[in-house]
Amino acid sequence: MAKLLSQITGSDLPDPKGFSMEDDSTVFTLSQSISILTSSVDIIPEGNRDLGSSSNGWANVHIGEVLHLSPQETLTTGNIGDLAVSGSNLYFYNGTWTQII
Fold first, then answer.
1. Which residues contact 37 (CB under 8 A, 6 or more apart)?
2. Edge-to-edge strand ranges of the sheet holding 89-93
3. For the whole model, what pTM was predicted?
4. Half-sphere exposure at residue 86, Cβ-oriented, CA atoms within 13 angstroms
5. For 95, phi and psi rounded to 5 degrees?
6. HSE-up of residue 96 (Cα within 13 Å, Cβ side)
7. Mean pLDDT (10-residue bins), the chain, 101 residues
């Protein structure tokens, strides 16, 4: 007989209780088969960490308040689309560094 969602307890869930670790580098993975999953998380890296990569990047990043960029002493070779701060100016890399502000 089917149970109501309010009647399901932890012992009713099969191991590993809905949570899994994909590999040693994954902190937490949640897989769900519903259409909408709303979540909130604070990502606080230890040391310098990259968010995504050139082969596994984020499609869109929406920033609601302020993006803080650490200033660079000198602007070295960049990748197309890079943003950087040097002195009190903001630069965009499109093959060469172009001052935006």
1. 30
2. 83-86, 89-93, 97-99
3. 0.46
4. 15
5. 115, -35
6. 2
7. 69 58 57 62 76 80 83 86 89 92 82
Report CA Rg, the chain.
21
Strand partners for 99: 91
Looking at this protein, which amino acid is placed at residue 50? D
Domain boundaries, the chain: 67-101
- CA-to-CA dists, residue 33 to 18, 30, 37, 54, 94, angstroms: 11, 10, 9, 28, 41
Q: CA 55 to CA 20: how far, in whole Å?
A: 24
Dihedral sign, Cα of residue 100, residue 48, residue 21, residue 9: negative
CA atoms lying within 13 Å on the CB side of residue 34? 4
For residue 30, what are its two tokens?
């949640």
